[in-house]
Every structure is written in structure tokens, then in C-alpha cells.
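Students often ask why inverse folding is considered easier than folding. One informal answer: many sequences map to the same fold, so there is more than one right answer. In these notes we will look at a single instance of the problem. The structure comes first.
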């Protein structure tokens, strides 16, 4: 297949994320979960229109069991490791994770990430978290990874779990660019690990987990976007080209990673405010998926997720966005502009 034959699978209305696939990529999930999955996807689309439709409970929870990564990518706060303002040393226990999923079950939570912005494959309880989510009726279960630790053994193990999506960040089509963006010499290893995972899965006659490869487009790698897409066209299930978001969340800081002349989006409402929330390792709930984790709206150790979702802070953020006043909130300004 050529890249021009890829279809637009999904993306955000503000064009921050553009995902391509070779056809009806969600078919295996529809086959597994039936009508419930279709309903979830249509709720997701409806909530993402930014027209005020609010589901009873988040459709997706991004859960961070621990704040840890083995790479120091230039686009990410992890580059400063424990000195990053986002760093917290807490670890979420499987009991707290279970409590989150049990509340999710009461509202039919459809989707979860069990890694958020940490390195998913460094998580000691990873397979437990995946199964706790599945036991509580979560359909779509995501893990995000840089694939450096995706060994054949771990791949085989993950293929026995209820994981439905493996999101692999690569950000480059050559080892040279990879080493600049991801500050690592493991490009070949990452590509091979990802290819092997897909091959093992296919050899077992499985179509899940879906594998998505991603490039966050910056001034450093934009010239390789086409090559990246070509390289994965016949291999990955989903190719995701993502808009770089200044990770400090501060619009007053000049950011050399923003590609020169980058087109601005004319859609100025943040869809995730109606779709999802993030839960950090210390229980803090963050209103959105921004890497800076600045918009704390509660803590699950003190308040239920449902209450936080319908609480004053979330309501204020949504109202401000609907009124077109996102720029009043500095982190929203830096993300949207
Ligand atoms: C922070 S990473 C952490 C998960 C995993 N360790 C990885 O490498 O993908 C989570 C996602 O955020 C994306 N990302 C990183 N920095 C970003 C930025 N500044 N703007 C937008 N997306 C970013 C990554 O490409 C990945 O898809």
C-alpha cells in the first residue's frame, strides 16, 4: 500500500492529532465489544465537538501509576528527570488503581491508559493494572511506550493480556534524528522491537492490541514526517502525526521546537475537557492531558472522580473555553495558540 491510500482514521478537531490507518482499524474492537464499543466511539465524537455535550463520566482516564521514564526526549518534561517541576515520587498502589476502576465500572468507563506520561513498560504492576481495568469492564486499554524495553519475552507476555492498544513513540525516520529528538541511540532497537511485536501478534492470529506509532512534529523532525509515514504504512495499524505542544505550558517562553510558520488551528475549544481526565500517581486529578500537569481539579483520595468531573473547577474551564476565553488560562493559551 502507498501512503496516499491510507485513510484518516481519527484525530482531534483542532488538528493536534492526525491518525492514519489502512482501513477500518477499529473493527477488531467492534468485533470484541459490539454495540457498546460503537456507542463509546459516537459519545467520544459527540463530546469532542466542543459544543457543550458532557457525558455522565469521563470516557477515558489517563492514569499515571508512577512518574518515571528511561528516555530524556527534548519534547518532554522527563528530560529534567527528578528536577522536573512535574516530578512526583509517589507510586500508585494497585489498590488505588482498583478503586479508580471500580468507580469507572459503576459508570461504564469505556477506556483507560495505564501509563499516561510515564514509560509504560517500566511499570512493575503493568499486567495487573491491565487486568484490573478489564475485570472492571473497561474495553479499550492503552499503554504508551518508547519500546526500548519491548523485548520478545515482554511482547509475548503482553499478548496474553487484555491490552487493546500499544502506543509507540518513535518521532523519527532515521537514527540521526532519533538521537537528536529522543537523545538515544536505540532507533534500530525500537523499530525492531515494534516490528517484532506486530509479527508475533499476527503469527498468533490476533488483531489486538492495535499498534500505533507516533511522531510529535517539531522543527527537528518535520522533514522526516513523510518518510516516517512510508516506513510504517504496511506495518503499524495506526500512524499518528501529532502537533508539538510546548511542554512547559508557558506561552511567554519562545520555543525553538515549534516548526517555523506552523499553521494555527481555527478550532479554539479544548475537546478533552469533555472527554477525559488524568489521574496522577499521588491521586491528583488533572483536567486535561497536557504534559505540564498544571490544571489540578481534585484528588481521588479525597473526592470521587464523578464529583470532580462535575465539579466547579471543571465547569469553570469548560465555560471559559465555550465562551472563547481560553487565552485567560495561560496553559490553555500555550497549548491552543
Ligand atoms: C510523554 S510520552 C510518555 C509515554 C512513553 N514513554 C513514550 O515515549 O511514548 C506520551 C505521549 O506524549 C507525546 N509527547 C511527548 N512530548 C510531547 C509534546 N511536547 N507535545 C505533544 N506530545 C508529546 C509522546 O510522543 C507520546 O505519544
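Output (designed amino acids):
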Amino acid at each position: 500500500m502507498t501512503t496516499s491510500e491510507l485513510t484518516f482514521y481519527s484525530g482531534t478537531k483542532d488538528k493536534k492529532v492526525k491518525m492514519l490507518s489502512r482501513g477500518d482499524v477499529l473493527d477488531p474492537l467492534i468485533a470484541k465489544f459490539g454495540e457498546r464499543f460503537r456507542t463509546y466511539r459516537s459519545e467520544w465524537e459527540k463530546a469532542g465537538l466542543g459544543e457543550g455535550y458532557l457525558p455522565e463520566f469521563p470516557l477515558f482516564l489517563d492514569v499515571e501509576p508512577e512518574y518515571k521514564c528511561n528516555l530524556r526526549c527534548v519534547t518532554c518534561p522527563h528530560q529534567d528527570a527528578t528536577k522536573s517541576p512535574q516530578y512526583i515520587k509517589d507510586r500508585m498502589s494497585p489498590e488505588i488503581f482498583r478503586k479508580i476502576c471500580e468507580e469507572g465500572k459503576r459508570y461504564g468507563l469505556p477506556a483507560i491508559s495505564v501509563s499516561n506520561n510515564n514509560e509504560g513498560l517500566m511499570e512493575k504492576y503493568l499486567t495487573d493494572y491491565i487486568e484490573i481495568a478489564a475485570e472492571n469492564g473497561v474495553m479499550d486499554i492503552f499503554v504508551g511506550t518508547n519500546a526500548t524495553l519491548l523485548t520478545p519475552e515482554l511482547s509475548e507476555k503482553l499478548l496474553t493480556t487484555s491490552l487493546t492498544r500499544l502506543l509507540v513513540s518513535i518521532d523519527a525516520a532515521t537514527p540521526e534524528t532519533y538521537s537528536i529528538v529522543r537523545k538515544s541511540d536505540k532507533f534500530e532497537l525500537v523499530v525492531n522491537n515494534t516490528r517484532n511485536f506486530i509479527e508475533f501478534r499476527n503469527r498468533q492470529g490476533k488483531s489486538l492490541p492495535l499498534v500505533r506509532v507516533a511522531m510529535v512534529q517539531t522543527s527537528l523532525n518535520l522533514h522526516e514526517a513523510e518518510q516516517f509515514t512510508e516506513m510504517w504504512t504496511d506495518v503499524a495499524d495506526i500512524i499518528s502525526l501529532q502537533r508539538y505542544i510546548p511542554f512547559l505550558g508557558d506561552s511567554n517562553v519562545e520555543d525553538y521546537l515549534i516548526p517555523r510558520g506552523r499553521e494555527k488551528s481555527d478550532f479554539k475549544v479544548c475537546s478533552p475537557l469533555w472527554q477525559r481526565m488524568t489521574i496522577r500517581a499521588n491521586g491528583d486529578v488533572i483536567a486535561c492531558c497536557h504534559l505540564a500537569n498544571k490544571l489540578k481539579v481534585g484528588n481521588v483520595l479525597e473526592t470521587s472522580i464523578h464529583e470532580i468531573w462535575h465539579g466547579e473547577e471543571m465547569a469553570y474551564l469548560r465555560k471559559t473555553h465555550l465562551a472563547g476565553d481560553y487565552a485567560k488560562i495561560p496553559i490553555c493559551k500555550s497549548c491552543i495558540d
